[in-house]
């Protein structure tokens, strides 16, 4: 279990139990869960709460870690809220190897920087891409689609398109 | 020396164990045996693999971003397309997640139809795997045998949903339409014929000396490594761990069916092959039970705020017209919160994590894809093997690049 002093908030959402910790405590909280038997990191991702009116959010970016105990089939979701440009949080890929690519993906699509990650590079988008597509202020269709009609006109007269 | 297209070779300057220099070889992304567009940068010592760096993203289509721009009921169409070999299973993960957040449950007949479609998809996905892996490992006729049965499954998809591949059949609240009598007939014929067909595949491959020598002892993944690396599906079961979400965390009524979790203690490529063959037999078993116990009743939840009213009602009821209009202009909203639901696809744990902010569009949809995680185990499996063995290892890992890149 996560030590009581690390827990900021906890609850149950649609049957899934979750715990919020401070971003600085994320490694301590996850290693406590790991020694408790939650050895599989199912996924790690980020949610961008820009202009989300459903409640008061502590920060714009919410990092979500879903852990599972393969023996008891128990699942726990750990959240940490981070802010800043770019937001920073400690990497956990040395504790949970599957987190390696998940952290690269989160960096690529949200621009969250994972401290001490050995190879924090873009994984899905091209290496020279500008921007982080899954941020809420990145528009859908903001990029001209290659080989489309718009792309053709953009190629011939980019200043008019 | 001329190299085949898709492969470039570079010297690293590092000294190898056999007196030569390490070579960096680029493999893919257009190489036919990479199952799509996987690119591998491999450091070779002679013919032995010293390092592998998978480069992915060539099939990234921004599915998660598109989901945020679509209404809840429109998103189903996009879920079809991430793991393009098992669309109904992707639909199921998304539908179950939305239903769980809304607190509704699909009626029994819809649940049974979902199981039928999931198992048919598992069969068709394993058939594609068996056929293509067969070709890569020298069994050229496998593809013909496998696609013969796969085509029957696609015919059934067409009969029940109107589409052969991207069915969008399973939707939040139920399924698109009830099964037609013809579909049930086709399914019955198929279930009767399938065990014999699987025997045929086994006759061709299981004791085939070439096939065995290319798989046995290749790509070992110890049970401990499989757990640590987060492998799921046939990858972890091929290492002797009986982890199957259909048994471990049952969904959609899987607890009612009697089937075994296929495992193999071989921990190598051959073990994963045996697991998939056994899984196909178990899928046929589940299909038989589901068909025999298919309950009667509606196939959609009776909730006008979530699903449109029947066509007949629109002509007589003003309320039905209003509901219809609201659903097709604004859509329904899902209460704020987040939920993670995982289902067992042909490749492993196919999960859907959705976050709602209470509006009619999702705030965030994340697909936890099995291939993305399983591909990370590639380096552990392929190290110190020959280049030719890498084909067998990629083949039996059965990654779908659409699922990896989403």
Short description:
The complex is a heterodimer of chains A (161) and B (406). Chain A has 161 residues and is of the alpha/beta class.
Basic shape of chain B: globular
- Please name the fourth-level CATH homologous superfamily of chain A: NADH:ubiquinone oxidoreductase Nqo5 subunit
What is the fold-level CATH name, i.e. the topology of chain A?
A: Beta Polymerase, domain 2
The CATH class of the largest domain in chain B is identified as Mainly Alpha
Strand order of the largest sheet of chain A: 1-2-5-4-3
**What class do helices, strands and sheet pairing of chain B give?**
alpha+beta
Q: End-to-end distance of chain B, in Å?
A: 38 Å
Mean pLDDT, all residues of chain A: 84
Give the CATH superfamily of the largest domain in chain B: Cytochrome-c3 Hydrogenase, chain B
User: Outline of chain A, from the CA principal axes?
Assistant: elongated
CATH arch. level architecture of chain A: 2-Layer Sandwich
Rg value of chain A = 19 Å
H/E element order of chain B: EEEEHHHHHEEHHHHHHHHEEEHHHH
Total of helices of chain A: 3
Helical residue percent band of chain A: 10-25%
Number of domains of chain A: 1
CATH topology of the largest domain in chain B: Cytochrome-c3 Hydrogenase, chain B
What features would you describe in this structure?
- The complex is a heterodimer of chains A (161) and B (406).
- Chain A is of the alpha/beta class.
- Chain A has a single domain (4-156), classed as NADH:ubiquinone oxidoreductase Nqo5 subunit (Beta Polymerase, domain 2).
- Chain A contains 3 helices and 7 strands.
- The N and C termini of chain A lie far apart (56 Å).
- With 406 residues, chain B is α+β, with helices and mostly antiparallel strands.
- Chain B has 2 domains: 7-55, no CATH class; 63-301 and 333-368, Cytochrome-c3 Hydrogenase, chain B (Orthogonal Bundle).
- Chain B has helices at 63-69, 75-79, 87-102, 108-136, 142-161, 181-205, 209-215, 223-228, 234-237, 245-248, 269-292, 311-314, 318-329, 370-374, 378-382, 387-397, 401-405, and strands at residues 7-15, 21-27, 39-45, 48-55, 170-171, 174-175, 337-345, 348-356, 364-368.
- Chain B has a 4-stranded antiparallel beta sheet with strand order 1-2-3-4.
- In chain B, strand 1 (7-15) and strand 2 (21-27) form a beta hairpin.
- In chain B, helix 4 runs antiparallel to helix 5 (142-161).
- The mean pLDDT of chain B is 87.
């Amino acid at each position: 279990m996560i030590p009581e002093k690390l827990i900021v908030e906890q609850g149950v959402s649609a049957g899934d139990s979750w715990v919020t910790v401070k971003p600085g405590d994320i490694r301590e909280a996850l290693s406590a869960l790991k020694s408790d038997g939650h050895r599989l990191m199912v996924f790690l991702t980020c949610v961008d709460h820009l202009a989300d009116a459903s409640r008061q959010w502590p920060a714009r970016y919410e990092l979500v870690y879903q852990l599972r105990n393969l023996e008891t089939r128990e699942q726990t979701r750990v959240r940490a809220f981070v802010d800043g440009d770019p937001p920073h949080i400690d990497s956990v890929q040395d504790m949970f190897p599957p987190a390696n690519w998940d952290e690269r993906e989160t960096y690529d699509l949200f621009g969250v920087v994972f401290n001490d990650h050995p190879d924090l590079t873009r994984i899905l988008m091209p290496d020279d891409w500008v921007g982080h597509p899954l941020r809420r202020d990145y528009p859908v269709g903001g990029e001209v689609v290659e080989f489309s009609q718009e792309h053709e006109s953009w190629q011939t007269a980019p200043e008019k398109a | 020396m001329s190299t085949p297209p898709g492969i470039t070779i570079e010297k690293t300057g590092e000294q190898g164990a056999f007196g030569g220099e390490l070579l960096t070889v680029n493999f893919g992304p257009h190489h036919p045996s990479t199952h799509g567009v996987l690119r591998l940068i491999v450091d070779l010592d002679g013919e032995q693999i010293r390092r592998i760096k998978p480069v992915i993203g060539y099939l990234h289509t921004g599915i998660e971003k598109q989901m945020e721009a679509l209404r809840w009921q429109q998103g189903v169409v996009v879920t079809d397309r991430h793991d393009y070999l098992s669309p109904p299973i992707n639909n199921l993960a998304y539908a179950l997640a939305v239903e769980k957040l809304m607190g509704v449950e699909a009626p029994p007949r819809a649940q049974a139809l979902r199981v039928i479609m999931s198992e048919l998809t598992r069969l068709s996905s394993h058939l594609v795997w068996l056929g293509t892996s067969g070709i890569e490992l020298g069994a050229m006729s496998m593809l013909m045998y496998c696609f013969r049965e796969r085509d029957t499954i696609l015919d059934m998809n067409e009969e029940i949903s109107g589409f052969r591949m991207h069915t969008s059949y399973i939707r939040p609240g139920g399924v698109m339409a009830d099964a037609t009598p013809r579909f049930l007939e086709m399914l019955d014929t198929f279930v009767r014929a399938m065990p014999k067909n699987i025997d045929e595949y086994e006759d061709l491959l299981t004791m085939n000396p070439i096939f065995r020598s290319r798989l046995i002892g290749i790509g070992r993944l110890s049970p401990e490594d499989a757990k640590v690396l987060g492998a799921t599906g046939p990858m972890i079961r091929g290492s002797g761990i009986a982890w199957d979400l259909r048994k471990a965390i049952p969904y959609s009524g899987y607890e009612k069916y009697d089937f075994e979790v296929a495992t193999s203690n071989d921990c190598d490529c051959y073990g994963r092959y045996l697991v998939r063959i056994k899984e196909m037999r178990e899928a046929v078993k589940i299909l038989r039970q589901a068909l025999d116990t298919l309950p009667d009743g509606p196939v959609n939840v009776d909730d006008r705020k979530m699903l449109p009213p029947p066509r007949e009602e629109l002509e007589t009821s003003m309320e039905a017209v209003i509901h219809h209009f609201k659903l097709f202009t604004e859509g329904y909203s899902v209460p704020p919160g987040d939920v993670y639901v995982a289902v067992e696809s042909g490749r492993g744990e196919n999960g859907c994590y959705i976050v709602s902010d209470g509006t009619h569009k999702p705030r965030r949809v994340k697909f936890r894809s099995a291939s993305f995680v399983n591909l990370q185990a590639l380096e552990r499996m392929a190290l110190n093997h020959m280049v030719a063995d890498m084909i067998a290892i990629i083949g039996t890992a059965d990654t779908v690049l659409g699922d990896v890149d989403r």
